[in-house]
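Quick one:
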Amino acid sequence: MTPVCTLMVRTPADLIAVTPFLLGFHPADSLVVIGLAGRSIDFIGRHDLPPPGDHSIESAAPLIARQGVREVALIGYGAPGPARSAIDDFDAALGRVGVRVREALRVTGGRWFNVHCDDRDCCALDGHPVPSPHNPIAAAAVFQGHVALPNRQALVKQVAPVEGEERRQMAAATAALNLRLGEGVSRTLVGRAGRAAVRQAERKHAAGQSLTYDETALLGALLVGRTTFDYALHRISGEPWRVQQWTEVTRRVEAPFVPGPAALLGYAAWRAGLGPLARVAVDRALRQDPYHRFAGILDGLLAAGVGPGAVESFVPPVGGERRAS
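Output:
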Protein backbone atom coordinates (compact mmCIF):
# COMPACT_ATOMS: atom_id res chain seq x y z
CA MET A 1 0.00 0.00 0.00
CA THR A 2 1.35 3.43 -0.87
CA PRO A 3 2.15 5.49 2.25
CA VAL A 4 0.44 8.88 2.48
CA CYS A 5 3.65 10.60 3.57
CA THR A 6 7.31 10.67 2.57
CA LEU A 7 9.87 9.20 4.95
CA MET A 8 13.59 9.22 4.27
CA VAL A 9 15.19 5.84 4.98
CA ARG A 10 18.95 5.88 5.48
CA THR A 11 19.75 2.56 7.17
CA PRO A 12 18.30 -0.92 7.62
CA ALA A 13 17.52 0.07 11.21
CA ASP A 14 15.35 2.91 9.86
CA LEU A 15 13.33 0.38 7.87
CA ILE A 16 12.86 -1.80 10.92
CA ALA A 17 11.81 1.21 13.01
CA VAL A 18 9.25 2.65 10.60
CA THR A 19 7.63 -0.52 9.25
CA PRO A 20 5.10 -1.02 12.10
CA PHE A 21 3.89 2.56 11.67
CA LEU A 22 3.38 2.17 7.94
CA LEU A 23 1.56 -1.14 8.39
CA GLY A 24 -0.50 0.21 11.27
CA PHE A 25 0.54 -2.60 13.62
CA HIS A 26 3.58 -4.53 14.81
CA PRO A 27 3.87 -7.54 12.46
CA ALA A 28 4.55 -11.12 13.52
CA ASP A 29 5.09 -14.23 11.39
CA SER A 30 5.03 -12.00 8.31
CA LEU A 31 6.95 -11.15 5.18
CA VAL A 32 6.87 -7.40 4.55
CA VAL A 33 7.68 -6.03 1.09
CA ILE A 34 8.73 -2.38 0.90
CA GLY A 35 9.07 -0.59 -2.43
CA LEU A 36 11.95 1.87 -2.47
CA ALA A 37 12.49 4.99 -4.56
CA GLY A 38 15.97 6.13 -3.65
CA ARG A 39 15.81 6.74 0.10
CA SER A 40 12.03 7.12 0.11
CA ILE A 41 9.43 4.44 0.78
CA ASP A 42 7.10 4.07 -2.20
CA PHE A 43 4.75 1.31 -0.98
CA ILE A 44 4.46 -1.41 1.63
CA GLY A 45 2.71 -4.78 1.60
CA ARG A 46 2.50 -7.67 4.07
CA HIS A 47 1.96 -11.42 3.73
CA ASP A 48 1.64 -14.17 6.32
CA LEU A 49 4.70 -16.40 6.37
CA PRO A 50 3.74 -19.35 4.16
CA PRO A 51 3.93 -22.92 5.44
CA PRO A 52 6.79 -25.10 4.14
CA GLY A 53 6.42 -25.84 0.44
CA ASP A 54 3.83 -23.10 -0.14
CA HIS A 55 5.05 -20.63 -2.78
CA SER A 56 1.77 -18.80 -3.41
CA ILE A 57 3.01 -15.36 -2.33
CA GLU A 58 5.56 -15.43 -5.15
CA SER A 59 2.69 -14.63 -7.53
CA ALA A 60 2.82 -11.05 -6.21
CA ALA A 61 6.27 -10.49 -7.77
CA PRO A 62 4.99 -9.76 -11.33
CA LEU A 63 2.42 -7.32 -9.94
CA ILE A 64 5.16 -5.45 -8.11
CA ALA A 65 7.25 -5.31 -11.28
CA ARG A 66 4.31 -3.89 -13.27
CA GLN A 67 4.28 -0.87 -10.94
CA GLY A 68 7.68 0.15 -12.29
CA VAL A 69 9.39 -0.67 -9.00
CA ARG A 70 13.06 -1.54 -9.45
CA GLU A 71 14.18 -1.97 -5.83
CA VAL A 72 12.53 -3.38 -2.73
CA ALA A 73 13.41 -4.32 0.81
CA LEU A 74 12.20 -7.57 2.35
CA ILE A 75 11.70 -8.01 6.09
CA GLY A 76 10.85 -11.41 7.49
CA TYR A 77 9.32 -11.47 10.98
CA GLY A 78 9.30 -14.73 12.91
CA ALA A 79 11.31 -17.87 13.55
CA PRO A 80 14.64 -17.98 11.67
CA GLY A 81 13.80 -20.91 9.36
CA PRO A 82 10.37 -19.83 8.04
CA ALA A 83 11.35 -16.15 7.83
CA ARG A 84 14.58 -16.86 5.95
CA SER A 85 12.85 -19.30 3.59
CA ALA A 86 10.17 -16.74 2.70
CA ILE A 87 12.81 -14.07 2.09
CA ASP A 88 14.89 -16.32 -0.15
CA ASP A 89 11.91 -17.56 -2.18
CA PHE A 90 10.51 -14.07 -2.74
CA ASP A 91 13.96 -12.69 -3.54
CA ALA A 92 14.30 -15.30 -6.29
CA ALA A 93 10.80 -14.54 -7.63
CA LEU A 94 11.55 -10.82 -7.79
CA GLY A 95 14.86 -11.48 -9.53
CA ARG A 96 13.03 -13.35 -12.28
CA VAL A 97 10.95 -10.23 -13.05
CA GLY A 98 13.81 -7.75 -12.86
CA VAL A 99 13.27 -6.31 -9.38
CA ARG A 100 16.36 -5.96 -7.18
CA VAL A 101 16.24 -6.68 -3.45
CA ARG A 102 18.30 -3.91 -1.87
CA GLU A 103 17.83 -5.09 1.72
CA ALA A 104 16.87 -8.50 3.09
CA LEU A 105 16.33 -8.40 6.83
CA ARG A 106 15.02 -10.81 9.45
CA VAL A 107 13.48 -9.82 12.79
CA THR A 108 13.43 -12.49 15.48
CA GLY A 109 13.13 -12.18 19.25
CA GLY A 110 13.66 -8.44 19.44
CA ARG A 111 16.76 -8.47 17.22
CA TRP A 112 17.26 -7.92 13.51
CA PHE A 113 19.67 -9.62 11.10
CA ASN A 114 20.90 -8.72 7.61
CA VAL A 115 20.56 -12.08 5.91
CA HIS A 116 22.69 -11.14 2.88
CA CYS A 117 25.58 -9.63 4.83
CA ASP A 118 28.68 -11.74 5.39
CA ASP A 119 30.79 -8.96 6.94
CA ARG A 120 30.94 -9.83 10.64
CA ASP A 121 32.35 -6.38 11.45
CA CYS A 122 28.95 -4.83 10.67
CA CYS A 123 26.62 -7.84 10.86
CA ALA A 124 27.16 -9.63 14.14
CA LEU A 125 26.13 -13.26 14.43
CA ASP A 126 23.67 -12.35 17.18
CA GLY A 127 22.17 -9.50 15.17
CA HIS A 128 21.25 -6.01 16.36
CA PRO A 129 18.59 -4.78 18.81
CA VAL A 130 15.33 -3.71 17.15
CA PRO A 131 15.28 0.13 17.22
CA SER A 132 13.35 1.92 19.94
CA PRO A 133 9.92 3.38 19.13
CA HIS A 134 11.59 6.72 19.85
CA ASN A 135 13.95 6.29 16.91
CA PRO A 136 13.91 9.58 14.90
CA ILE A 137 12.27 8.07 11.82
CA ALA A 138 9.59 6.37 13.94
CA ALA A 139 8.98 9.70 15.65
CA ALA A 140 8.62 11.32 12.21
CA ALA A 141 6.03 8.70 11.24
CA VAL A 142 4.04 9.43 14.42
CA PHE A 143 4.27 13.16 13.72
CA GLN A 144 2.78 12.55 10.26
CA GLY A 145 -0.19 10.75 11.79
CA HIS A 146 0.81 7.08 11.74
CA VAL A 147 -0.07 4.71 14.58
CA ALA A 148 1.37 1.27 15.30
CA LEU A 149 -1.14 -0.95 17.09
CA PRO A 150 0.27 -3.76 19.26
CA ASN A 151 -0.61 -6.46 16.73
CA ARG A 152 -2.82 -7.25 13.76
CA GLN A 153 -5.61 -8.47 16.02
CA ALA A 154 -6.03 -4.92 17.36
CA LEU A 155 -6.54 -3.72 13.78
CA VAL A 156 -9.02 -6.51 13.04
CA LYS A 157 -11.14 -5.32 15.97
CA GLN A 158 -11.77 -2.08 14.08
CA VAL A 159 -13.96 -4.01 11.60
CA ALA A 160 -15.28 -6.65 14.01
CA PRO A 161 -19.03 -7.14 14.53
CA VAL A 162 -20.71 -4.94 17.11
CA GLU A 163 -21.80 -6.71 20.28
CA GLY A 164 -24.26 -6.43 23.14
CA GLU A 165 -27.28 -4.19 22.76
CA GLU A 166 -26.19 -2.96 19.31
CA ARG A 167 -26.10 -6.53 18.03
CA ARG A 168 -29.52 -7.29 19.48
CA GLN A 169 -30.96 -4.15 17.88
CA MET A 170 -29.47 -5.06 14.50
CA ALA A 171 -30.74 -8.64 14.70
CA ALA A 172 -34.25 -7.36 15.42
CA ALA A 173 -34.10 -4.80 12.58
CA THR A 174 -32.87 -7.44 10.14
CA ALA A 175 -35.58 -9.92 11.15
CA ALA A 176 -38.28 -7.26 10.66
CA LEU A 177 -36.82 -6.37 7.26
CA ASN A 178 -36.82 -10.01 6.17
CA LEU A 179 -40.52 -10.21 6.96
CA ARG A 180 -41.23 -7.15 4.84
CA LEU A 181 -39.10 -8.29 1.92
CA GLY A 182 -40.57 -11.77 2.04
CA GLU A 183 -43.57 -10.43 0.19
CA GLY A 184 -41.36 -9.74 -2.87
CA VAL A 185 -40.16 -6.52 -4.47
CA SER A 186 -39.64 -5.76 -8.15
CA ARG A 187 -36.14 -5.24 -9.52
CA THR A 188 -37.01 -1.66 -10.45
CA LEU A 189 -38.13 -0.84 -6.93
CA VAL A 190 -35.02 -2.52 -5.49
CA GLY A 191 -32.82 -0.37 -7.72
CA ARG A 192 -34.57 2.82 -6.65
CA ALA A 193 -34.49 1.82 -2.99
CA GLY A 194 -30.79 0.99 -3.23
CA ARG A 195 -29.85 4.35 -4.69
CA ALA A 196 -31.98 6.13 -2.11
CA ALA A 197 -30.44 4.13 0.75
CA VAL A 198 -26.90 4.88 -0.41
CA ARG A 199 -27.61 8.60 -0.73
CA GLN A 200 -29.29 8.66 2.68
CA ALA A 201 -26.23 7.03 4.27
CA GLU A 202 -23.96 9.54 2.56
CA ARG A 203 -25.99 12.52 3.74
CA LYS A 204 -26.04 11.32 7.32
CA HIS A 205 -22.34 10.47 7.56
CA ALA A 206 -21.29 13.66 5.81
CA ALA A 207 -23.18 15.45 8.57
CA GLY A 208 -21.50 13.37 11.29
CA GLN A 209 -24.59 11.26 12.01
CA SER A 210 -25.18 7.50 12.16
CA LEU A 211 -27.81 5.45 10.38
CA THR A 212 -30.66 3.98 12.36
CA TYR A 213 -30.64 0.21 12.79
CA ASP A 214 -33.51 -0.12 10.31
CA GLU A 215 -31.64 2.01 7.74
CA THR A 216 -28.49 -0.07 8.24
CA ALA A 217 -30.36 -3.36 7.81
CA LEU A 218 -32.01 -2.14 4.60
CA LEU A 219 -28.76 -0.85 3.12
CA GLY A 220 -26.94 -4.08 3.96
CA ALA A 221 -29.65 -6.19 2.31
CA LEU A 222 -29.74 -4.02 -0.83
CA LEU A 223 -25.96 -4.22 -1.22
CA VAL A 224 -26.29 -7.93 -1.92
CA GLY A 225 -27.51 -6.93 -5.36
CA ARG A 226 -25.04 -5.78 -7.98
CA THR A 227 -27.01 -2.65 -8.91
CA THR A 228 -26.84 -1.10 -5.46
CA PHE A 229 -23.27 -2.28 -4.84
CA ASP A 230 -22.03 -0.75 -8.10
CA TYR A 231 -23.90 2.49 -7.41
CA ALA A 232 -22.28 2.79 -3.97
CA LEU A 233 -18.87 1.78 -5.28
CA HIS A 234 -18.70 4.41 -7.99
CA ARG A 235 -19.72 7.16 -5.56
CA ILE A 236 -16.79 6.56 -3.19
CA SER A 237 -14.24 9.35 -3.23
CA GLY A 238 -11.65 10.70 -0.83
CA GLU A 239 -13.79 12.18 1.94
CA PRO A 240 -12.72 10.77 5.35
CA TRP A 241 -16.33 10.22 6.44
CA ARG A 242 -16.76 7.54 3.78
CA VAL A 243 -14.40 5.26 5.69
CA GLN A 244 -16.46 5.84 8.83
CA GLN A 245 -19.68 5.24 6.90
CA TRP A 246 -18.69 1.82 5.60
CA THR A 247 -16.97 0.85 8.85
CA GLU A 248 -20.24 1.40 10.70
CA VAL A 249 -22.29 -0.60 8.18
CA THR A 250 -19.72 -3.43 8.06
CA ARG A 251 -19.66 -3.78 11.83
CA ARG A 252 -23.43 -3.60 12.25
CA VAL A 253 -24.93 -5.82 9.55
CA GLU A 254 -25.68 -9.48 10.19
CA ALA A 255 -23.11 -11.95 8.87
CA PRO A 256 -24.78 -12.82 5.51
CA PHE A 257 -24.73 -9.14 4.54
CA VAL A 258 -21.09 -8.42 5.48
CA PRO A 259 -19.32 -8.91 2.09
CA GLY A 260 -20.85 -5.87 0.34
CA PRO A 261 -20.15 -3.17 2.94
CA ALA A 262 -16.80 -4.76 3.88
CA ALA A 263 -15.65 -4.64 0.24
CA LEU A 264 -16.81 -1.01 0.02
CA LEU A 265 -14.92 -0.22 3.23
CA GLY A 266 -11.84 -1.86 1.74
CA TYR A 267 -12.13 0.32 -1.37
CA ALA A 268 -12.75 3.52 0.63
CA ALA A 269 -9.75 2.79 2.87
CA TRP A 270 -7.58 1.92 -0.15
CA ARG A 271 -8.54 5.21 -1.82
CA ALA A 272 -7.68 7.06 1.42
CA GLY A 273 -4.23 5.45 1.69
CA LEU A 274 -5.27 3.34 4.71
CA GLY A 275 -3.78 0.08 3.49
CA PRO A 276 -3.89 -1.86 6.77
CA LEU A 277 -7.58 -1.06 7.28
CA ALA A 278 -8.32 -1.96 3.66
CA ARG A 279 -6.56 -5.28 4.18
CA VAL A 280 -8.59 -6.37 7.21
CA ALA A 281 -11.84 -5.17 5.61
CA VAL A 282 -11.21 -7.23 2.47
CA ASP A 283 -10.23 -10.22 4.59
CA ARG A 284 -13.55 -9.98 6.42
CA ALA A 285 -15.48 -9.80 3.14
CA LEU A 286 -13.70 -12.85 1.73
CA ARG A 287 -14.10 -14.88 4.92
CA GLN A 288 -17.85 -14.52 4.56
CA ASP A 289 -17.88 -14.92 0.77
CA PRO A 290 -14.64 -16.23 -0.80
CA TYR A 291 -16.13 -15.62 -4.27
CA HIS A 292 -17.01 -11.95 -3.89
CA ARG A 293 -15.63 -10.57 -7.14
CA PHE A 294 -14.70 -7.03 -6.18
CA ALA A 295 -13.23 -8.08 -2.83
CA GLY A 296 -11.11 -10.55 -4.81
CA ILE A 297 -9.80 -7.78 -7.06
CA LEU A 298 -8.87 -5.62 -4.09
CA ASP A 299 -7.25 -8.63 -2.43
CA GLY A 300 -4.85 -8.92 -5.38
CA LEU A 301 -4.04 -5.21 -5.40
CA LEU A 302 -3.34 -5.17 -1.69
CA ALA A 303 -1.23 -8.32 -1.82
CA ALA A 304 1.06 -6.61 -4.31
CA GLY A 305 1.17 -3.36 -2.33
CA VAL A 306 -0.53 -1.49 -5.17
CA GLY A 307 -1.92 1.92 -4.21
CA PRO A 308 -4.61 3.84 -6.12
CA GLY A 309 -2.00 6.23 -7.48
CA ALA A 310 -0.30 3.36 -9.27
CA VAL A 311 -3.47 2.46 -11.18
CA GLU A 312 -4.04 5.18 -13.74
CA SER A 313 -7.66 6.33 -13.98
CA PHE A 314 -8.78 3.36 -11.91
CA VAL A 315 -12.46 2.60 -12.41
CA PRO A 316 -13.92 -0.31 -10.44
CA PRO A 317 -14.49 -2.82 -13.26
CA VAL A 318 -17.10 -5.10 -11.71
CA GLY A 319 -19.62 -5.22 -8.96
CA GLY A 320 -20.12 -7.44 -5.99
CA GLU A 321 -21.48 -10.56 -7.62
CA ARG A 322 -19.81 -13.86 -6.84
CA ARG A 323 -16.88 -15.03 -8.91
CA ALA A 324 -17.20 -18.22 -10.88
CA SER A 325 -15.75 -21.09 -8.90
